Each structure stands twice: as C-alpha cells, then as structure tokens.
User: Which sequence fits this backbone?
C-alpha cells in the first residue's frame, strides 16, 4: 500500500467541506473530495482510482492540488476562478 494518504491531513472544518463537496452534483468536484477523504482513511491511489474509474496518477494529482491550495484545490469552479478561466457553472 502506498503511503501518500499521510500527506493529506485536513482539519475538522476542511473534512466537513470535503464531505459536503463529495455530495456535489458535479462529478469532478465530488470525485476529488471522495478521493481525499478516502486517502485520509488510508486507501491507496490504486484503490481510489479503481473505485472512481480514474487512473492512480490522477488521484496523486488531486492530492497535490490539495496540498498546494487546500480546499480550493478540490473545487473545480474555484480552480477555474484562480486561473481566470472563462466560463463557470450556474
């Protein structure tokens, strides 16, 4: 099992935000949040990727986003806003 989940350590407020985001109707947001919550529980990138139908590398990238930007690194709309990308969700 990989040990990457140790580098993801949200506080109680962040966990609550991730739990809420994991129920988002936007799959990208929900998958990122679930991946991070499962990482904290000790699941490996491979296990998470398989459950979400993603590649393990993608899960590792999501962890990296979270380590760099915290909760903002999980929410696609916030990521786009940070980048100044055009287009946003209703």
Assistant:
């Amino acid at each position: 099992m990989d040990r990457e989940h140790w580098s993801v350590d949200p506080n109680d407020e962040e966990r609550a935000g991730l739990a809420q985001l994991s129920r988002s109707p936007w799959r990208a947001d929900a998958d990122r949040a679930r991946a991070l919550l499962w990482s904290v529980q000790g699941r490996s990138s491979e296990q998470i990727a398989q459950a979400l139908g993603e590649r393990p590398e993608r899960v590792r990238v999501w962890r990296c986003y979270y380590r760099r930007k915290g909760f903002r690194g999980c929410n696609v709309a916030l990521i786009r806003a940070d980048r100044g990308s055009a287009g946003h969700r209703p």
